[in-house]
Design a protein that fits this description.
By secondary structure, the protein is mainly α. 71% of the residues lie in helices and 4% in strands. Strand 1 and strand 2 form a beta hairpin.
Length: 295
């Protein structure tokens, strides 16, 4: 057994891998939340339920439509994004000018309805979803065994997160999105359809959660409460990174996953609370978050 200074390297790197996988999902979910809040000022408490919808969408597509993993990775986020568009158009837009608390309560209610509906239909026990054949097996590294599917999760998450950041921060479309939320009247005067832009942005934000749900289906049990279990952690990560900070959501999501993995190895009793302890410390030192801007 390989050890260094009394540390079991196999166990340490194994927990780091678990932390990176969790961090990949944290990054995707918190990125969606940061986009929706940062650009639209909507607190979407249904993000965890939409993550669950993505996992169930992959499962149902395979069971009833014969749609495999790779097709589901494209189709399910599009369908979930369409549901997000309908949600924004018919539920959130009528209260857009009200206090942010109204959208928080509304989306929280939507999350409870979705979770209750799927619990009634499928029960609370988890459903299995097979790893695609192309990603079965793994690679033997010096201090750990790296399953191919776990490596795919990390790589795919990084590609999507970095691509989304680049689109929002470095392209003309991203400039339109930011300007449309900061000064919608001016953008309307230039002929930009701001309401449509808001709707599509919300749809994209929830589609990221659907994408994460599809990737999570082969790793975790597909169950109605899988979203509620991760949502509070993701909100804490968004707060640590800075509400509305796109880059902060990605970096903090991955970083907190690694911190959680290290804590599981060195002090397992604190692994469920370490992210919240970090949140408290960060808020005491920098209330706007690590990458947030002071109001």
């Amino acid at each position: 057994m390989a050890t260094f200074l009394g540390i079991n390297l196999f166990g340490l790197f194994g927990q780091l891998l678990v932390g990176l996988i969790n961090g990949s999902f944290y990054a995707l979910l918190s990125l969606g939340l940061a986009i929706i809040f940062g650009l639209l000022k909507i607190i979407n408490f249904a993000q965890g339920a939409i993550y669950m919808l993505g996992a169930f969408g992959a499962y149902l597509a395979l069971q009833y439509l014969g749609i495999g993993y790779w097709a589901a990775l494209i189709v399910v986020p599009l369908v979930v994004g369409l549901l997000g568009i309908l949600m924004e158009r018919f539920l959130i837009r009528p209260i857009a000018n009200e206090d942010h608390l109204y959208s928080l309560l509304l989306t929280f209610g939507v999350a409870l309805v979705l979770q209750g509906l799927f619990t009634h239909m499928f029960g609370s026990s988890g459903l299995s979803y097979a790893i695609p054949d192309a990603l079965k097996g793994g690679t033997k590294l010096p201090f750990m065994y790296l399953p191919n599917y776990r490596a795919w999760i990390i790589i795919a998450s990084l590609i999507v997160c970095v691509g989304t950041w680049w689109m929002i921060e470095k392209t003309k479309l991203g400039a339109y999105l930011r300007a449309g939320t900061e000064n919608p009247a001016l953008m309307q005067a230039f002929g930009i359809n701001v309401p449509l832009m808001v709707t599509l942005t919300f749809g994209f934000g929830v589609a990221l959660a659907g994408f994460a749900g599809v990737m999570a289906a082969p790793v975790y049990s597909v169950s109605p409460d899988m979203g509620s279990n991760i949502l509070i952690v993701v909100f804490a990560i968004v707060v640590i990174g800075g509400m509305g900070s796109i880059g902060g959501a990605i970096i903090t999501g991955l970083g907190m996953g690694i911190v959680e993995g290290l804590t599981k190895y060195f002090y397992p009793e604190a692994s469920n609370t370490v992210i919240f302890l970090v949140m408290v410390v960060v808020l005491l030192i920098k209330p706007a978050g690590l990458f947030g801007k002071e109001a």
